[in-house]
Amino acid sequence: MAGNIQSSDAITGQDSDQPIIPANVSLPEITIRVLVLGVILTVVLAAANAFLGLKVGVTVSASIPAAVISMGILRFFRNSNILENNMVQIMASVGEALTAGIAFILPALIILHVWDRFNYWQTVITSLLGGGLGVLFTIPLRRALLQDKTLRYPEAVAIGNVLKASAKREEGDLRQLVFGGLIGGVIALFQSGFQILTDTFQYWVKSSAAIFGFGLGLSPALIAAGYIVGINVALSLLVGIAIGWLAGVPVLSYVYGLPDAETANQMAMVIWKSHIRYMGVGTMLIGGLWTLSTLFKPVIHSMAMSFAAVRQIRVGQQTDTLRTERDIPIHYVFISALVLLIPIFFLIANSIIPSEFNIAPGFRYFLSGFGTFYILVGGFAFCSIMAYFAGLIGSTNSPVSGLLVSALLIICLVFMAFFSFTEWDSQTKEMIGSVVAIGSMVVIGAALSISNDTMQDLKVGQIVGSTPWKQQTMLILGVVVSSFVIPPILQLLYNAYGIGGVFPRPDMNPAQMLAAPQAGLMATVAKGVFSHQLQWNMIGIGALIAVICIVIDELLKKHYGTRLPVLAVGLGIYLPLDSSVPCVIGGILAYLVQFRLDSIYHRHRGEPETEIKMNAHRHRGLLLCCGIVAGASLMGVMLAIPFAIKQSSDALRLMPEQYMSFAGVLSIIVTFMLCAWIYRVVLKRD
Fold first, then answer.
1. Is the pTM of this model over 0.85?
2. Res. 390: pLDDT tops 60
3. Which pLDDT score, from 0 to 100, does residue 60 have?
4. What are phi and psi of 328, to 5 degrees?
5. SS3 of 102, please?
6. How much is the pLDDT for 174?
7. Alpha-carbon dihedral of residues 641, 646, 652, 657, nearest 10 degrees?
8. Cβ pair 57, 47 in contact under 8 A
9. DSSP state of 324
10. CA separation (Å) from 636 to 68, 161, 476, 508, 631?
11. pLDDT tens-digit profile of 178-194?
């Protein structure tokens, strides 16, 4: 479009490391049309994901669909620019993120029969406080995490390249994005919609004493994300898969006996749910704390720079900070975070802990005070780890529930120590401890989900050249808008289906119930801690695995210049195979492409133009995979509409149940063809 500002000489250079809008160029970013479009998309995408979050325990990342939709709409305005696209995408993505954070935990209070409905204002205030803290927590992390070259931010890179190619009108780049998007969207439609294909293939067999087998994940979006993050993360995930699934399932089925299930596939999933994922939690807990210790120095340095800039402004010595490095002033961040603690305290004391609980006022306020303190300190720690995950593996595949379980375990253990001084019976301790712990985790969960998406959005802004403080303002606006939308959506779904085995009225159909698996996990873990029925041995084994991986990682980094990220290992243990294996496939594919490029261009000979030619191939592969991620993600959001209308994820199903094994074989063939196609297109010589 001729009138677009970003097609003028404001766009400079060919260096992919430089933002598309340079720091010395200022364009409109927060405009009326951005606010209107952002509000609409925030509401729509929050509603679309609420059903999926409660039904199957997952949500579809809204960042890419929001970027594509806003890009298409803003094209109709003559003077629109890429930074406005970024602002709309940022605001809309908050709706999905906050929905996930609230829907994954708050229903646990329904499951525990503490609440009998989603009170509107309690839910609004909880969402506002948790989401606001999530935004504030990531502001001091931005510089440290975006400057870490080991973090690839696969989804942010995908969004950034979509916006870049559109803005620069690079026909070759747009063609790769479109082709990738079409392929990713069609495969996702046939997998999740028509179900002629499947995104998972499990093959397990049982002997008299153990279970053996393996599973494949066949999601095109995750294969493409694996290609983007590369071989190091893929191999780390593979180590976790080998520990948790290849070795863990046979050994644990032998030690604990075969579970009570109809098929070997179901038995393997029971072992994963009851044992393996707790091992992953232990690995991620220790690995997360270790990662946090490595982030401490750069985060403190970043905060010190911010405080120094504030002091210089106060004494009239303002330095010329680049536009693309201006955050919300750090002292405003600290003051705002401390101010939010006041309503959080009263929320826990007067809303989360029911008034009918027979607790002395002093002890009620003590528990509320500790919960508030933990939200501040523990929330920042786990938000830092979650933000790191967004860069390591992408926001969609980040283990929000795994970190939430880790955070929940810590606060439950502390509460057990507090309760040892009371004369309450075990049932009272279990109820009060579970309620206060989960109430605190609702706020932390909202903050975690927001920090996950926020760091990705800030990376997109770095790619395109947005102003950080304006991005952070849009994130806060997105939190406000979505906070007022989430409660009626949750209440509507609860009234229509029931949640987690709890129904608002008798004679409802259990088959239509929303299982709320993440909230159910939170309730089970909290009750398990206080009833002494949690898998502590598995968590301990996972912690030991983390220590071993940390030692190996340090040795590899020091002597061989490579890494074994412990969090990725924990992720491989914790995630089901249909989420982790496709990332491994994509990473291996990227390695094979690079190996072939080295062979073709004889890189070791040091020819002058070799790197330029190889970079052209790498760029093509990156754009192709970005398109696949975008197409599959957009299709996921589109499919949420008929699923919600028909009240079933089988609304468009064409494949009969008895032929699903055939769908699995066909999916393996299609996945092989997809990988072969990517390999061939990337290596094609111009």
1. no
2. yes
3. 56
4. -60, 130
5. helix
6. 63
7. 140
8. no
9. G
10. 13, 20, 26, 29, 9
11. 888 899 989 989 988 88
